[in-house]
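Hello again, I could really use a second opinion on something today. I've been staring at a protein lately and its backbone has me curious. Can you walk me through what the tokens say about the fold? Take your time with it, there's no hurry, and the full record follows here:
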Amino acid sequence: MGTNKGRLRIAVDSMGGDFAPLEIIKGAIQATTGGDLEVLLVGETDLIESVLRKESHDPELISIVNSEGAIQENESPVNALRQRPKASISVSVGLVKQGFADACVTMGSTGAAVAASTFGFGLIAGVERPALAGPVIGFNSQVVLLDVGAGVDLRPSQLLNCGIMGKVFAEKVLDMGSISVGTLSVGSEDEKGNRQIKEAFPLFVESGLPFIGNVEGIDLFDQRPKVIVCDGFLGNVIMKYTEGMGVAMQEFIGKELDAILDQEIIRDIQNKIFSTTNVVESFGGGPLLGVNGITIIGHGRSRAPAIASAINLAKHACEQDFVENMQQEIQQFSRVSD
């Protein structure tokens, strides 16, 4: 693969996602237009080459690394990884682990990406389970929600773990400044919530985190900087509900304003609604928190612009020394809370 002349190198799972490999490859080409980034397209060589031949690109910035097939959403991630160690997500993670790439990006199976990254990179000391986080509602970029899909059924201690990682992510990566941490529940009173939240509550109280107690769904729109913790089942439902509502609002606005406003103005409004309610799509994805490497996980339905954004997010995470900062902050927090 040669030297990269100081450029960061991102391994991209070209076989994962609903529109792979065409949209993945187009997104990779878009991401490299600045000339300061290299992409390793991981996938079936013949297939990728057939697409690349039809697209204008800089061969110095885009290379192909062969892999065999992709792990699908309906497969057991752990079993599939064991049976097919040369699948695209496994090879992508392996390139980072072996030092051939600085980060990896996938639009494929979230479960497979989490499992491959956990097995390949290992967990940061003090982390029980990795998590996905992000500002899921663009109306309020000051609120980070996690987990949004990495762990659908978390134990109380793992929810606390999410609170710690979310604090580091919000303050050090998103540069939100000093934040508070709350647990998502059906009421703000201390005794409200299911068994999971009730058992987690005293752990948060005793943790040393800036814990504000239970928060409700309406607090997702509160402008106070904070991290809201829930398991990945609820977090993923909230994220996708918000995205779906945005699409429905786009259609509604288009029909209601069709006879009143110019079509260009309507499209501008619709685009703003989409970017506000589909934050993950706008950012391209989010980093997997808690592993000793950088994996950006995006939506399976992503098209080229979102994929380019995900690749640039991976580049940004590398430039911020994302993993090193996470390691240091978690260790520091652990010493304070002991």
User: Anything to note?
Assistant: The chain is about 45% helix and 15% strand. Residues 232-257 form the longest helix (26 residues).
